[in-house]
Specification:
Layout lengths: L1 E7 L8 E7 L2 E7 L12 H4 L1 H5 L9 E4 L2 E4 L2 H19 L4 E5 L7 H5 L1 H8 L4 E3 L6 H11 L7 E2 L6 E5 L3 H4 L9 H10 L3 E5 L5 H5 L2 E3 L6 H14 L12 E2 L1 H7 L5 H8 L3 H13 L4 E4 L1 H4 L4 H14 L9 E2 L42 H6 L10 E5 L3 H4 L3 H9 L3 E5 L12 E3 L20 E4 L15 H12 L8 H16 L11 H6 L6 H12 L15 H5 L5 E5 L15 E2 L3 H13 L8 E3 L26 E3 L1 H7 L6 E6 L2 E9 L7 E3 L14 H5 L26 E2 L1 E4 L2
Parallel strand pairs: 6-7, 6-15, 9-10, 9-13, 10-11, 12-20, 15-16, 16-17, 21-25, 22-24
Antiparallel strand pairs: 1-2, 2-3, 4-5, 4-17, 8-14, 18-19, 21-26, 22-25, 23-24, 23-27
């Protein structure tokens, strides 16, 4: 007999509500939840394939432990015994920094990944932290930290009310949005056009999103910061700057005017390959719109000036008065966010509090560049011990980091590696212990991260759609036990981790005069928490202490877990609203328009005006049925146009003698590879494109379907030396390559 159950989709940032069809313990279908308060029935191909992802036969069902060089199945107790025996001696002999932690993108798509890694890191006190952020969005975190004092204060476009949207390096019709959680992004863009709004897309590729636009600017890859700087200069020189209500909250306007004064459209046009008149038109259209929003994503982050480009996006939003106003860009307020602090000066945001050993890369947001992971393992210096053991949670850096071949070898040299992953993939095949989480249907779900970037305030929670199968362990318990094993508390009750977090959080809350529970007994508050598990009790606590919460009785009509469970399709908390100066944590208590690290990096941007690529440059691309390397083992999500081909413009193909479908040798600083050509005018001349996340051809992995069409690992073309210096983000787009027809 079949039944249905609700589940929030964890397969991309759109977080759509799903209605699952379940037969026994198997998901047999998935459709959009028409009553979901946020997605209202929308579903993309990934969500529709939830059952295939959930039931992939290559998912590991039991832990694996390495014995005599080979991985074998083991019980959970044996696996955690091995973790404790492998990690603790490394920390005790070489210190905490000799134990590295790598967190992958799927962590922010699970409840466990949001709740437990911060506890693990806090207990380990290692500075050797690497995440997917430094091959993705770290420039936006750094620019937000410098501007607003908080690396997580990221303003998102008010898609449903804006009159003018400028998209840079973003393709939301394929990605479903990124750092902008918006179910049915395509429908929202079409609604913008239907109400008379204007859409401009800046992208070297004519993407699906660009084809929908009123104006498509085919910029030369990697020059977004120059274009944006010139637009800001036009706003200043033509008297188009109008801060409006922002004026009391902003400082540094005249310093910014002087700093950008020489970035004229004429000075950047050759580098960007965009005419000066078009640059002026972009600036004037932005200033003339009743409301407008500038939004940029990965194409503008994974380039040499990623932090400057991210900063200039918000500079344009500020100069046109569109920051923190309806129809512009606004700061979301998630239900589990801390209650906003009183406005005023904060601690600010600091960069470079420590550095990597080998090349002295500064930390950003507590992280070191993922591109530096291999050298931090395989290179000895006088600066301290190399990384000798590694915890990898939901990450596959052999495919996602630059120079995967070097990292592949480095991982094999570690004293100990533990991987939390449902697959034996290109990275976890090196592990001494693999701890597999259950399929998503057997896990609860609340979007802690993505609700902080949502285009509408709302809150939703779904319990497991299917009970945990015998022999499985909940991902929350896996990460709690891992925390205990890695920190010398192996064997303790995993519930102690949740109890400790609750005790610490409530103890802090009752000492805070701005908290609704100020002065109360934390033990009494803890006793009143509801929920069937430790994670649910923590969610209940966060909801009750949050901006919409009941304050443990102080606001009787406020949110609690019980209230949320009574609304299975979620609770709409209304449109985004202006929040300044609340989000500001800078030392001045204002938006600091020209932070010192930004000003110090501007000479490098000036020099870039004279740089031209000597040959073709490479950019990545995203596909609607793919999310990094996660889903290439699911047959229904591969094939068709979701293929690992090299897009080449017809003019370049004719010049190089490359035929459609022929093999092309691509050479970069880190290596070379061969991929089939796909001749298309969707890329501009001088630009070629390969998707990322492929390269499933390494021995020892158990990805049966992915291995049938492995593709190539585009990041192997990189040697890891090209980084945005402020954020440590890897340069993945606009990199020079050499092309030749392959035999």
């Amino acid at each position: 007999m079949s039944r249905t159950a609700l589940r929030i989709c964890p397969l991309c940032e759109a977080t759509c509500g799903l209605t699952l069809t379940i037969e026994g313990s198997r998901v047999t279908g998935a459709r959009g939840d028409g009553e979901d308060v946020f997605s209202k029935g929308f579903v993309c191909p990934k969500g529709a394939a939830f059952g295939a992802v959930d039931g992939d036969p290559d998912r590991l069902r039991t832990p694996l432990v390495r014995e005599n060089g080979r991985l074998r199945e083991a019980g959970w107790e044996e696996a955690f015994d091995a973790v404790a025996a492998g990690l603790r001696p490394v920390v005790e002999r070489y210190g905490p920094d000799a134990l590295g932690v790598v967190l992958g993108n799927p962590n922010v798509h699970t409840m466990a990944g949001a709740l437990y890694p911060p506890v693990l890191l806090g207990a380990l006190r290692t500075r050797s932290l690497f995440t997917a952020s430094t091959v993705d969005q770290m420039p936006k975190h750094v620019s937000s930290g410098l501007l607003f004092g908080d690396a997580h204060a990221i303003a998102v476009p008010d898609l449903d009310r804006t009159d003018h949207l400028l998209l840079i390096g973003a393709n939301p019709l394929e990605s479903n949005g990124s750092l902008c959680t918006a179910p049915d992004f395509p429908g929202r863009l079409k609604a913008l056009r239907a109400r008379g709004g204007h859409l401009t897309v800046v992208d070297p590729r004519r993407t699906r999103t660009a084809r929908l636009a009123d104006r498509h600017v085919a910029i030369r890859p990697g020059t977004d910061a120059l274009l944006l700087a010139a637009m800001a200069q036009v706003l200043f020189t033509e008297g188009l700057v109008d801060l409006g209500g922002l004026a009391p909250h902003v400082e540094g306007i005249e310093e910014l005017r002087a700093a950008l004064g020489d970035f004229t459209p004429e000075s950047v046009t050759a580098a960007c390959d965009v005419e000066a008149d078009e640059i002026r038109a972009l600036a004037r259209e932005l200033a003339a719109a009743r409301t407008a929003a500038v939004y940029a994503r990965i194409g503008s982050c994974t380039v040499p000036h990623g932090t400057l480009a991210s900063w200039l996006v918000d500079v344009l939003n500020i100069l046109t008065g569109n920051l923190d106003r309806p129809g512009g860009v606004l700061f979301p307020l998630a239900a589990t966010a801390r209650t906003p602090r009183p406005p005023g000066p904060g601690h600010g945001f600091a960069l470079g509090r420590w550095h990597s050993r080998v090349r002295r890369h500064p930390e950003a947001k507590g992280e070191l560049p993922l591109a530096a992971l291999a050298e931090e393992i395989d290179t000895a210096t006088e600066e301290g011990e190399p990384i000798r053991a590694l915890i990898v949670v939901a990450a596959n850096p052999v495919l996602s980091a630059p120079d995967g071949n070097r990292l592949d070898k480095a991982l094999g040299s570690l004293d100990f590696l533990v991987s939390v992953d449902p697959y034996l993939n290109e990275t976890s095949r090196h592990a001494h212990v693999v701890l597999p989480p259950p399929p998503p249907s057997q896990s609860p779900h609340h979007d802690f991260a993505f609700n902080a970037f949502a285009v509408r305030n709302q809150v939703r929670y779904t319990r497991p759609a299917i009970p945990l199968e015998p022999g499985r362990m909940a991902e929350t318990e896996i990460l709690a036990r891992l925390t205990l094993a890695a920190t010398g508390m192996h064997g303790a009750d995993p519930g102690a981790v949740d109890a400790m977090v609750v005790e610490q959080a409530l103890g802090k809350a009752v000492r805070d005069p701005g908290s609704p529970v100020y002065g109360r007994d934390p033990g009494e508050l803890a006793a009143s928490l509801t929920g069937g598990t430790g994670p649910e009790r923590r969610l209940d606590m966060m909801l009750r202490l949050g901006p919409y919460g009941d304050g443990f009785g102080a606001r009787p009509d406020g949110l609690t877990l019980a209230v949320l469970l009574a609304h299975p399709h979620g609770i709409d908390l209304g449109p985004l609203r202006p929040r300044l100066p609340g989000p500001l944590k800078t030392r001045s208590g204002k938006v600091e328009l020209l932070p010192a690290p930004i000003a110090a990096d501007l000479p490098r941007l000036r020099a870039a005006r004279d740089e031209r690529p000597a040959g073709p440059v490479l950019v990545g691309r995203r596909h609607l049925r793919s999310n990094n390397s996660w889903m290439h083992n699911v047959p229904v999500l591969t094939g068709g146009s979701n293929r690992c081909t090299l897009h080449v413009h017809p003019e370049d193909a004719a010049r190089l003698g490359i035929r459609d479908g022929a093999r092309v040798r691509v050479k970069g600083a880190g290596g070379e590879l061969v991929a089939p050509a796909e001749i298309t005018d969707a890329v501009r001349p001088g630009v070629v494109s390969l998707p990322h996340g492929w390269g499933h051809d390494r021995p020892g992995a158990r990805l049966a379907h992915a291995a049938t069409t492995p593709g190539v690992n585009v990041n192997q073309l990189l040697d890891g030396t090209l980084l945005d210096p402020l954020s440590g983000n890897a340069v993945l787009n606009g990199i020079p390559v050499e092309l030749a027809a392959a035999p």
